[in-house]
């Protein structure tokens, strides 16, 4: 059995009610810490062969198009205050987790921040880390790496990071999730697994 995760059920799109054969679904909540705890619990309870996280993300700039689907090649823990120079992490703290599950979508690094960035200035600073912003992936990847379970993340861009993000996300997240599932199905990913 393989496990399909998302922050909340709507981000699983049509797979929430109808997962592919050999896959089960679950949600892990919002934010990296909550996602890490929930993922670790699910790994212990269900013991999957692999984990795929499905979700939405925001784009920092024009490197990504709205509704573009991507494979999170790495999840990078960061924050706006770090980019501004007002905070730092101890040298021994791990901040990067690599996807260990091969995926069919274009690979992109993803910045995982502790809270949604709501300014254009903040988006410009964080754009030097990765082209996309997300909230849960470091938690999911960290739990999977600790358990030795292959993991990947498939995301769809549904908003620009900045002041209009909440409005765009509300308007686009359901359609984006549908398109992401459609892209994964069209690639044959679920049949190959």
From TrEMBL:
Transmembrane segments: none annotated. It comes from the Bacteria. InterPro entries: Nucleoside_phosphorylase_d (IPR000845), Nucleoside_phosphorylase_sf (IPR035994). Residues 28-88 form the Nucleoside phosphorylase domain. SUPFAM superfamilies: Purine and uridine phosphorylases (SSF53167). This is Nucleoside phosphorylase domain-containing protein. It comes from Geothrix edaphica.
